[in-house]
Structures are given as structure tokens and as C-alpha cells.
Design a protein that fits this description.
Number of helices: 3
CATH superfamily of the largest domain: Head domain of nucleotide exchange factor GrpE
Helix content: 55-70%
CATH topology of the largest domain: Nucleotide Exchange Factor Grpe, Chain A, domain 2
CATH class of the largest domain: Mainly Beta
Structural class: alpha+beta
Largest sheet: 3 strands, antiparallel
Length: 200
């Protein structure tokens, strides 16, 4: 009878110890899981921070590129404005200059119509016209208006306009042998080409 009681007691102790073992194992598993969670969180935080850094770097690079493009566009616009202003200053007198050269044409025709400059009757008139033309040319040069008188020079289609071509064995081919009308330039830009006869 005593043996049975001892046996039952041992069984009861074993049964009592099983819940304790299970509780102990559950607590150990819980502690292990709690230990693993921070490591996982650290990995997630690291990946998130890396993604944020990459996004910030990409945004900064894009903004830097946009700023550089804008600066380049502003510089190009400033250069274009400077060129436009420079051209406006240089060629503001272009239309006015074109009108002035017609005055020179008329004075040259007047000198040709005078006749013999040595004739005492017209000598004073001729000299007066000549002085007036020289003064007028000086004023034109003051404003960068230059006369083109290409007599004997090689023909240049950029500044000359050929009215005709004539054979002339005394000069090289493509030489200006006669000037019908003198040309003019303003700051190097042709405002009227010289009208010429060219040798073949």
C-alpha cells in the first residue's frame, strides 16, 4: 500500500513538473524571439536609411543639373542680348547711311557734269564740290561708313555687283575695270555693293 502511494506521488510530481517545463520552454522561446526582433529591425532600418540616402542623392543630382541648365540658359540669353545690343548700336544708322550715300552720288554726278576742272569758269565750282565731298567722306568715316571704290581690284561678290563682263587682255581675268557706282559699308556690313564691270 505504501508503494502505491509513493508511485502515485511520483506520478503527481511528474505531472506537476510538465507544465513548469512547458512554461519554461515557452518563456525561453519568447526571450529568443525578443532577441531576434531587434536584429531584424536594425536590418530594416539600415535598408530604409540606405534607400532614403539614395533618393536624396538622386534628388540633389537632379536639382543640381536643373540649376546648371538654368544658369547656362541665362548665360546664353545674356550673350544673345549683348550681341543684339551691340548690333543695334553698330547698325542703328544703317537706313540713315543708305540715304546719305545717295547725296554722295549726286555730288559725284555734279562734279562730272562740271566739265573741265581747269576751265576758269567752273574751276571754283569744281573745287568747292571737291572740298565738300572730302568733308562729307570724313564725316561718314567718323561713323564707320566706308566707301568702296574697287577700280583695278579683284572682283569680290561679297561687296561688288557685276553689271557686265568685258574681255580685256591688258588686265587679269576677274578684275574690276570700271565702276558704275561706288559702294559703301557700315561697320564692315555692306549697305550697298559697288556696281562694276569685270574683265573676262
Amino acid at each position: 500500500m505504501a508503494d502505491e502511494e509513493a508511485s502515485n506521488k511520483t506520478k503527481d510530481e511528474a505531472q506537476d513538473s510538465q507544465p513548469e517545463d512547458k512554461a519554461s520552454k515557452a518563456q525561453q522561446n519568447s526571450e529568443h524571439e525578443e532577441q531576434n526582433v531587434p536584429e531584424h529591425d536594425e536590418e530594416v532600418d539600415s535598408e530604409l536609411q540606405e534607400a532614403i540616402d539614395e533618393a536624396v542623392a538622386a534628388a540633389l543630382a537632379e536639382q543640381r543639373d536643373t540649376v546648371m541648365r538654368a544658369q547656362a540658359e541665362v548665360q546664353n540669353m545674356r550673350r544673345r542680348c549683348e550681341v543684339d545690343v551691340e548690333k543695334a548700336h553698330k547698325f542703328a544708322l544703317e537706313k540713315f547711311s543708305a540715304e546719305l550715300v545717295s547725296v554722295m552720288d549726286n555730288m559725284e554726278r555734279a562734279m562730272q557734269a562740271v566739265g573741265d576742272p581747269q576751265d576758269e569758269k567752273v574751276k571754283g565750282l569744281f573745287e568747292g564740290l571737291e572740298l565738300t565731298m572730302k568733308e562729307f567722306l570724313n564725316i561718314l568715316r567718323k561713323y564707320d561708313i566706308e566707301q568702296l571704290d574697287p577700280q583695278g581690284e579683284p572682283f569680290d561678290p561679297q561687296i561688288h555687283e557685276a553689271m557686265s563682263m568685258v574681255e580685256n587682255p591688258d588686265v587679269e581675268p576677274n578684275t574690276v575695270i570700271n565702276v558704275f557706282q561706288k559702294g559703301y559699308t557700315l561697320n564692315g556690313r555692306v549697305i550697298r555693293p559697288a556696281m562694276v564691270v569685270v574683265s573676262k
